[in-house]
Amino acid sequence: MKNIFSDAQTFKEALTTEVAHRFGRDFEDAYPEERYLVLGSLIRDQLGNTWKETKKSVAEHHTKQLYYFSMEFLMGRLMTNNLMNMGVYDVVKEALDDLGMDLHNLEELEADAGLGNGGLGRLAACFLDSLASLNLAGNGNCIRYRYGLFKQEIINDQQVEKPDCWLRLGNVWEVWKPQHDVRVKFGGTLDAYMDQFGKFHSNYHPSFVVRAVPYDEPIVGYHTPTTNTLRLWDAAVDEESVQAGKLNEYLNAVSALTANVYPDDSTEEGKELRLKQEYFFVCAGVDQIIRSHLRTYPTLDNLGEKTAIQLNDTHPVLVIPELMRVLMDDYNYNWDDAWNIVRQTVAYTNHTIMSEALERWPQHLVRNLLPRIYMIIEEIERRFYHYVQARGMGNRFAEMSILKDQQVHMASLAVVGSHSVNGVAAIHSEILVNDVMNAFATLWPERFNNKTNGVTHRRWLVYSNPQLTSLLKEYIGDGFIRHPEQLEKLMEYVDDPTLQEKFMNVKLERKKILAKYVHDELGIDVDVNTVFDVQCKRLHAYKRQLMNIMHVMSLYLRMKQDPNFRVQPTTYFFAAKAAPGYALAKEIIKLIVKVANRVNNDPLVSRYMKVIFIPNYSVSIAEILINAADVSEQISMAGKEASGTSNMKFMMNGALTLGTLDGANVEIVEQVGYENAKIFGLRVEELEEIKRHNSYDVWSIYNSNPNLARVIDSLHDCTWSSNPNEFQLIFNDLMLHRDEFFVLADFDAYAQAHREVSAWYQNRPAWARAMLINIAKSGYFSSDRTIRQYANEIWGLDEIQFTPEQYEKFGFEKEAE
Ligand code: 26Q
Description:
Layout: H1 8-23, H2 32-60, E1 65-69, E2 73-76, H3 79-86, H4 89-98, H5 103-107, E3 113-115, H6 119-133, E4 138-143, E5 151-155, E6 158-162, E7 175-176, E8 182-186, E9 189-194, E10 200-205, E11 208-220, E12 227-237, H7 247-257, H8 272-296, H9 303-306, E13 307-312, H10 319-330, H11 335-345, E14 346-349, E15 360-362, H12 363-369, H13 371-390, H14 397-400, E16 403-404, E17 407-409, H15 410-416, E18 421-423, H16 426-436, H17 438-443, E19 448-450, H18 457-463, H19 466-476, H20 497-522, E20 531-536, H21 545-561, E21 570-575, H22 583-600, E22 609-613, H23 619-625, E23 631-634, H24 646-652, E24 656-659, H25 665-672, E25 678-679, H26 684-692, H27 698-704, H28 706-714, H29 728-736, H30 743-761, H31 764-776, H32 783-795, H33 804-809
Parallel strand pairs: 1-4, 1-13, 4-12, 13-14, 14-18, 18-19, 20-21, 20-23, 21-22, 23-24, 24-25
Antiparallel strand pairs: 2-3, 5-6, 7-11, 8-11, 9-10, 11-12, 15-17, 16-17
Helix pairs in contact: 1-2, 1-4, 6-32, 8-10, 10-11, 10-13, 12-13, 20-31, 21-22, 21-28, 27-28
The chain binds ligand 26Q.
Ligand 26Q binds next to helix 6.
C-alpha cells in the first residue's frame, strides 16, 4: 500500500489528482471549499487503514471496549488535530505551500462541530482524544444533530440566536452506515402476561417507530495506529410504520428528533422531545453493543467483562432499563442475571450538585412514551425498596427512591443501576458523598469515587499554541506531548530570566493574534500591553459574570469621579452564551455589552480599560482566546461549579487563576501553591454557616459600602442605558431576591484580589515566573491522567495490541515500555 502522506511530492500528486477526479478541475482552478473537501477526504481515507487495524486487533485479542454515552460531544474542528495526531501536518503543509496555498486557510473552512452546550460536551470530546492516544478502545455514542448549539449574534446589544448550519459543506469525517440501522420504538400499548412457568411475555404495539442510522467518525490517537469511533445517530423514516393518514405528522416527528441540541444546560421542565432524544440514542447504542458483542462472543454472559458503558451525567441513564429489557425480553435472561450484567457494565458520572439541575421526568410521560421501560423502572424501584429495608436504612429510602412526587428521578436510577458513581473534582465528589447523595453513599460507600476532570493538552496547548509549544520543546524536549507530567521539567528553568523574557514574548504573540481577531470581527482596537483578563463560559448566575462586570463598572465610575484614581491598564474579555429562555442571563449579557459601549467610547477611561464581549463563544474561539490570557477568571460561588475545565486550559497556557475555592480551582492551587494564583472569597463552609444562620443581608452591605452602592444605583439611574428599567431583573435578583449567589458578599474581596493581581503584573519577572510555574504544574490536568484513572479504576481497560510491524507500517514508533 502506498502511503500518500509519505512525502510532500507524493501528497501533492494525490491531492491534485483527487481534485480533478472529484471536481473536474485543476487544483489552481478549484474553489477553496473544493480543496478543503478533497484534503479532508484524503485524510479520512487514510484513517480508514488504521481504523481497520484497530477493529481487527480489538476483535482478535478480545480487548475490552468502552462506550462513552453522551448527549453532547463538543468536538470543534478536527483537521489540524487529525493531521497532527497522524504526524503528517508538516508534509501536508509543505505540499500546499508548493501549490501556493496556506493550510491555515483551509483549516478555517471547517465548521465547528458544536454538538453540545459547554463543559460536559467538551469533556467528552477531550476524553475521546485521550482514549485513542493512550491506545484504549473507547468509542463515543451520541446524536447527529443537524444543527449545533445556536449561533449567537449581538444585535441591539442583545443576544439573538441563529441556527448553526455546521453541515452546510457536508461532514468530511463521517461515514454513513445505513446497513447498521436500528429500529427504535415509542409509545403505544403493551399487552403483558405470565406464562405457566412464571415467565414474562409481552406484545408491544408501538405508536411511533423510527430507524436510527449511524454515521461514524474516526478518532485518531497521537502518533499511534489506534483509531476509535464516534458514532452519531441520525433518525430516518421507517416506511412500514406510518399510521394511515398521518404521513406529514410522522415525517415531522422523525425530523424533529435529531434537529438540534437542547440549548439549556440547566434543566428546564421536562420536554417530551428531549426524552425521545435520550431514548433514541440509548436504544440504538445498546443495540449496536449487543450485536457487536455477539459477533465476537457466543453469549452475553460476559458482556460486563468485555464492555464498559460510561454515562455522561444522567442524560443517557435509560441505558440501564433498556439493557435490562434487551437481556430479559430478547435474550431470555432472568431478572437477577440481567441485573448483574447491567450493574457490572454501567458506571455513572455526575456533573452537578445544583438540585434544580438534577434530571427528573414526569412519570406519566415516561410511562406513555416508553411503557416497557417504565415497567422495568418500577420493578427496579420495588426491589431496591426491599433491599434498603433489609439493610435497615428504610428511614432514608425517601431520599433515594427513583419514583416519587409523580416524577422519575434519573440520578437515583443511575446510582442504583451502576457499579461506580463519580464526581468531577475532589470538592465536588466530597459534596456528593457528604450532602447531595449522602444516603446512597452511606448505603454503598464503595460505589463512590472521584475523577478530577482534565482537558487534552494536545488541542489546548500543543496545537492551539504552537508558539508556546516550540518554546517548551526548546527547554524540555517534546516528551510532554505524550507524557504531560513531563511539563514539570520546566520547574528547573522558571527562574531563568531568558526563559521568562522569551515566554513573555510568546504571550505577546498570542495577545496580538487575539487583538487581530477582535479588530477584524468587532472593529475594536485593543492594546496588547494591557493585562488580558478573560472570563469565557456559559452564562449562569452561579458563575457570577455579574460580579465581574460590576467590578468593571465600579472602576469606571471611580475613574469618572476621581481624576486621581487610575488603574493598571486592563482589557476585560467576556464570552458567553445564555440559554434562550434564561432571562436573567440574557440581561447580564446586555449589561456587559452596554458597559463595553460606554467604557470603550470614553476617551479618558478607555486608556485604562476596555471591555470586549466576543460573540458566539465556541471551541474555535476558545482556541485563540484562552491562550492569550494573563488572568483566568474562575469566580463561581464556592460549592456550585462541579469542576470547570477552562480553568485548566488557561493554566496550561500560563494564565494565573483569579478564583474562588470551587471545583478544580482547589486542585489547581494545590498544584501551584497559593503564591502562584489569587484565591479570594467565601468558602463552602463559610457560606453554609451564613445560610444556617440566615444572616445574609444585602441591604446592610449596600448601606455600608458606598462604592458598591454606587454600582447598584447605576443599574437604574441611566448610567448605562437611557431606560431606567433596562436592568430590572438584575437589580431585583440582587436586592429583592437576596442575591442567591452571594455576589455582594464576595464583591470587596474580589476587588481587593484584582488590586493585588494588578500590582503583581507590574513586577514582570515575578509575573513571568508564576505563569511558568502554572504551565509546569498543569500536566496533572491533562485528560490523559483522567482517562488513565477511569481506565484503571472504573473500566478495567487494557491497551490495544499492535505489532511492531503495524506501528511501522503507519510510520509510528512504538514507545518502549
Ligand atoms: C438536561 C435536561 C434537559 C435539558 C438539558 C439538560 C442539560 C444539558 C447539559 C443539563 C446539563 C448540561 C450540561 C452540564 C455541564 O456542562 N456541566 C459542567 O460539566 C463540566 C464537566 O464535568 C464541569 O466542569 C462543569 O463544572 C459543569 O458545570
